[in-house]
Design brief:
The complex is a heterodimer of chains A (368) and B (578).
Chain A: E1 12-21, E2 24-34, E3 39-43, H1 50-58, E4 65-70, E5 73-74, E6 85-88, H2 100-110, H3 115-128, H4 144-156, E7 162-166, H5 174-191, E8 194-199, H6 202-208, E9 211-216, E10 219-224, H7 226-231, H8 236-241, E11 246-255, E12 259-264, E13 267-272, E14 284-289, E15 294-298, E16 305-316, E17 321-327, E18 331-337, E19 351-356, E20 362-365
Parallel strand pairs in A: 3-8, 3-9, 6-7, 7-8
Antiparallel strand pairs in A: 1-2, 1-4, 4-5, 9-10, 11-12, 11-14, 12-13, 14-20, 15-19, 16-17, 16-19, 17-18
Helix pairs in contact in A: 2-3, 2-4, 3-4
Chain B: H1 21-49, H2 60-67, H3 69-102, H4 108-120, H5 123-134, H6 139-150, H7 166-191, H8 194-202, H9 207-235, H10 239-245, H11 257-267, H12 271-299, H13 318-346, E1 348-350, E2 354-357, H14 360-368, H15 370-400, H16 406-418, H17 421-431, H18 445-470, H19 473-481, H20 486-497, H21 499-515, H22 531-540, H23 544-569
Antiparallel strand pairs in B: 1-2
The chains are: A alpha+beta (368), B mainly alpha (578).
């Protein structure tokens, strides 16, 4: 990798930050560390406070409470132009009256980088994002994907300590989005730059991140590596927001060092003990049943843990088939068949047995 | 909530505005300017109008105004003439706007260009041209006289339609102000999605049903706000009543308010009564302004921020289409004939009597008014540049760096737009001269420059803030994010994006300053004469040839400036429509 764009990565440490607009907190007592050189995603639905958090790191808002540090330095009150963060905005915010070259050079000129240095550095950044030959284009003549590359080059050319990405892919079409996702990840890892990435797209977050921070109504529900978030969700919200989940009411019967026993659907199940939260005997909980952890057998099959049910509907998706299965007690489960055969599909009205991968079932707090 | 003791150290920060000394300084400059040039002169007028000659306060002048038949008739004349002219302006403005935005009439480009011409002309120039056309010696009336003579009428003058009187003032003011209504209506029509009208027709509504139940209701806020605006300008107009009105209005003994204020001051030297009339003139303008700015704006159906819909044409019944065409064509031809007749008047020996070609008037105008022409160009150019730059800078402060008192400041900065020219001129004359003389500017060019500047600054503020609404603030955040300090970001990013707006504000300011009479009539002096005042005096003295020559000079110089700016902006004349 080209060494000139590399700098010593710094962590971003947010400690108990709160930001209110009027009386309601948009960000409420959030503590998150974006590790040096890693990509940290703030994930959540719109209005969850993820963009507000990012804008506080960028210096566009100041937190009402709490501190933000970049490396050792507390940056509260430092205006954006004096910070070592660079943002790629959702709308890219390219300067419409400038060419690609001028856009990329802007940050160097604004900060008084020597004239002789600007040309080569801009060329290097433009090459880095694969826009050779487009330097003299006006920014209005570019496609969405090209504009986005310019926005990246413009941010990276100044060698920021921290790169902030605000839903950078949301204005691109689906195919390009997947492609750019991989490019961003590669660029970030090659440069080893501390990156905070805001998105509402859970698939994007899972595929890109070293760490995912799930936000809900201004608070952090859970943070950790993507597989933790998916396999061991801390709350019903996280389980629901990431992937597809069926929730089934359960009651905690016994708690042991490494496992718990719960009763659900008139059955006692032995599950791994949750690592994300405490469980207590007698407490109500919800089983998180992922569709791919459920299997449909013929009604008379036995073995493992299973429940009798009736197929309500089936959707054939090519690579998979998705069933809605009704269980006694008005419970409706989504079940995925990962290798459907047209002829062997169950039909609506068929009696079936739903079998669980018990070792992959997780329990979260809450009542249905 | 966690215990307070366990909280991370609270990092409270000062409001950002205080951390930007440039912003604080700029705000101070705007506030000082507005206080000195808007509030202070207005205040002095108010004080003068209630000043008792023996010291103390008196309301005797107001009592005199509202008990005297003469002054009341002045008020009635103003209301009647302005009301009728406003209605006619709305009808014409709507017809033109509808024709060019919603129909496929031929000559649309021509109509759109011609309708803007009255905005480039002095308000009284149309009145003057009407005299050349329809005065006693006007071309049309001379022709009608010949016809009457030829067919052997007992009174050969019977066929004449002489322009002097209420009808003339109304006609002149309608033609002067309907382009404003046109601009408001065409912007509103352009931003009303034509699919709404299509939906109405799709649901079975006829053309007229759709017009009545969908199009017009959607336009109601625009209609109302342009009605207020046009009425405000009509009510404070001076040129047409002075040129065409004298002694022949609805109440023939009386004039109208603005000319009456000028008569009181410059004719009778009665400053007390003049300021009283000025205050009476301010009240309705202020009410209208406040109402329009702060009430109507919230009710508008027209979105300001959205991109205008690429409007599609609608199938319009042929009868409507050709009626519109006829109206637009007649008005356009009339506007063109206004310019042509003035040019013709400038090179004609004695209008209505001797149509021999001559350069005498042009020569007289160029020699006798040389100083006035230079003064006008310099003061208008400088004033317009200052008004555009300062106005847009203020708009930037108000919209992008707001602080709690910003609305009051914005309101005060916009006031000169609502205050009639008579009031602003008289206010300056009182505030910077005579009794209030702690800063004596009377008789200087500076007083004219400052008056020009403050009266047209609101246009810079408005066009600046509407242009800023089109610029996503994230652009500036991007500049800051990339390390640009506020001043650098403004200079390199915001200002270049506002270039066309600055030029537009400059052009409008320049034209308005070149053609203004009502304010500067109080401020000119033998050392500082102005082209517009020379022109008015020439009309007043009946020196029609010289007046026409001065008009031609004025028109040519404004068009030259327009062309230069158009070249500079490189974007066509779109900025005129802002």
């Amino acid at each position: 990798m080209n060494p000139t764009l590399r700098i010593e990565p710094q962590p971003v440490i947010m400690e108990r930050i709160t930001k209110r607009f009027g009386a309601t907190p948009a960000v409420d007592d959030v503590t998150v560390t974006a590790e040096a050189g890693q990509l940290t995603t703030l994930l959540g639905p719109s209005g969850c406070g993820k963009t507000t958090t990012l804008r506080m790191v960028g210096g566009f808002y100041d937190p009402d409470e709490g501190t933000i540090r970049i490396g050792e330095r507390v940056v509260n009150g430092v205006p954006p132009h004096a910070r070592s963060t660079r943002t790629v905005f959702q709308s890219y915010a390219l300067f419409p009256h400038m060419t690609v070259f001028e856009n990329v050079a802007f940050g160097l000129r604004a900060t008084g980088v020597a004239r002789s240095e600007i040309g080569p550095r801009v060329d290097e950044a433009i090459a880095l994002v694969g826009l050779h030959g487009l330097a003299q284009r006006s920014s209005g003549q570019l496609s969405g994907g090209q504009q986005q590359r310019v926005a990246f080059a413009r941010a990276l050319v100044t060698r920021p300590e921290v790169l902030l990405l605000d839903e950078p892919l949301s204005n691109l079409d689906a195919k390009l989005r997947v492609h750019m996702r991989a490019e961003i990840r590669k660029l970030q890892q090659d440069l080893g730059i501390t990156t905070i990435y805001v998105t509402h797209d859970q698939e994007e977050a899972m595929s890109l991140s070293d760490k995912v921070v799930v936000m809900n109504a201004g608070r952090v529900d859970q943070q950790g590596p993507p597989h933790d978030i998916y396999e061991r969700p801390a709350t019903r919200f996280v389980a629901d927001f990431i992937g597809v989940s069926n929730f089934v009411a359960a009651r905690v019967e016994t708690v042991a060092a490494d496992h718990v026993e719960v009763s659900a659907l008139d059955t006692r199940l032995r599950l791994a003990r949750p690592t994300t939260h405490e469980v207590y005997v007698g407490e109500a909980g919800l089983l998180v049943l992922r569709p791919e952890h459920l299997h449909l057998d013929d009604a008379d099959a036995t073995g493992g843990v299973g429940f009798a049910g009736k197929v309500v509907s089936v959707a054939y998706l090519g690579a998979a088939a998705s069933y809605q299965v009704a269980l006694p007690g008005d419970i409706l489960l989504t079940v995925e068949d990962p290798a459907p055969r047209g002829a062997a599909l169950h039909r609506p009205g068929d009696r079936v047995r739903v079998r669980l991968d018990v070792e992959r079932v997780y329990v979260v707090p809450g009542e249905s | 909530m966690a215990l307070a003791t366990s909280r991370a150290p609270r990092a409270r920060t000062r409001p950002r505005i205080l951390r930007e000394p440039v912003v604080t300084a700029a705000y101070a400059a705007v506030a000082l300017t507005v206080a000195l040039l808007v509030l202070y002169p207005t205040f002095t007028i108010l004080v003068e109008s209630v000043r008792d000659p023996d010291g103390g306060v008196t309301l005797a002048r107001y009592q005199r105004f509202f008990t005297s038949t003469y002054f009341l008739h002045t008020l009635y004349n103003t209301l009647l003439v302005s009301g009728i002219a406003t209605l006619l302006s709305l009808v014409l403005g709507f017809a033109f706007a509808y024709a060019v935005t919603r129909t496929d009439l031929p000559l649309k480009g021509f109509f759109t260009a011609v309708v803007l011409v009255p905005m480039l002309l002095p308000a009284f120039l149309i009145a003057f041209a009407l005299i050349l056309l329809l005065g006693r010696n006007g071309v049309i009336n001379r022709f009608l006289y010949e016809v009457g003579n030829w067919i052997g009428l007992a009174d050969p003058y019977a066929l004449q339609w002489v322009i002097f009187g209420s009808h003339g003032v109304i006609l002149a003011q309608t033609l002067t102000f309907f382009p404003m209504a046109f601009l408001v209506f065409s912007a509103a029509l352009a931003s009303i999605d034509p699919r709404l009208e299509e939906a109405a027709e799709d649901l079975g509504g006829s053309y007229w049903f759709t017009m009545r139940r969908v199009t017009l209701p959607l336009l109601a806020p625009a209609a109302f706000s342009s009605a207020l605006l046009v009425f405000m300008f009509n009510a404070s107009a001076f040129g047409a009543p002075a040129v065409l009105g004298g002694g022949r209005l609805f109440f023939p003994q009386a004039s109208m308010l603005a000319p009456e204020a000028i008569i009181q001051i410059l004719g009778l030297y009665d400053w007390g009564m003049g300021t009283t009339i000025a205050v009476i003139l301010v009240v309705p303008s202020l009410i209208i302004f406040v109402f329009g700015e702060y009430y109507l704006k919230k009710r508008s159906y027209v979105t300001v921020t959205g991109t205008p819909t690429a409007f599609t044409l609608r199938a319009v019944p042929p009868a409507v289409k050709w009626t519109l065409f006829t109206v637009c064509l007649l008005i356009s031809l009339f506007i063109i004939s206004v310019v042509l007749v003035v040019v013709a008047g400038a090179v004609t020996r004695t209008w209505g009597v001797n149509y021999e070609l001559t350069w005498r008037h042009m020569q007289t105008a160029l020699t006798a008014s040389r100083a006035s022409i230079t003064n006008s160009l310099l003061l208008s150019g400088g004033g317009a540049a200052a008004a555009a730059l300062f106005g847009i800078l203020s708009a930037y402060l108000f919209t992008r760096r707001p602080f709690p008192g910003v609305r009051a400041l914005d309101f005060t900065a916009m006031l000169p737009y609502a205050l009639p020219g008579v009031v602003m001129g008289l206010g300056f004359a009182v505030a910077f001269g005579g009794r209030w003389a702690w800063i004596v500017l009377t008789g200087t060019g500076a007083i004219i420059f400052l008056n020009h500047f403050i009266r047209r600054m609101p246009f810079g503020v408005r066009s600046g803030s509407s242009a800023l609404k089109q610029i996503d603030p994230v652009i500036e955040e991007a500049a800051a994010d990339l390390g640009a300090k506020p001043v650098y970001a403004f200079r390199r990013v915001v200002f270049p994006l506002l270039r066309a707006t600055v030029l537009g504000a400059f052009v409008f300011g320049f034209i308005n300053m070149m053609t203004d009479i009502t304010a500067v009539i109080f401020l000119v002096s033998p050392r500082w004469r102005l082209l517009s005042i020379d022109l008015f005096n020439a009309i007043d003295a009946g020196r029609l040839g010289v007046a026409a020559a001065l008009s031609v000079i004025m028109i040519v110089s404004t068009f030259l400036v327009l062309i230069v700016v158009w070249r500079l902006s490189g974007k066509g004349l779109d900025f005129l429509r802002r």
